[in-house]
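Researcher: Next sequence.
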Amino acid sequence: MPPVGTAGDIAAITSADPRFGLKTAIDGYGEKIYVEKEDERGKPVIWYKTERNRTYRRERTPTGILAETVDTS
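Model: Next structure:
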């Protein structure tokens, strides 16, 4: 997998993007995610994922997963 911000990504990530410099991983569906925070087991607690040309920030909470759209421009 190419590093974040290279031409290997669909769109290069700039320093203004919240995903800039984050660790990349593959989720349970085989899709690329950007991990901001992990728990002690290495499971993502806060991560970003692009779906349908929108980027979503997801956060795992005790009651479920919260999702919100993020402006990446």
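Model: The longest strand covers residues 44-51. Residues 1-9 have pLDDT under 50 and may be disordered.
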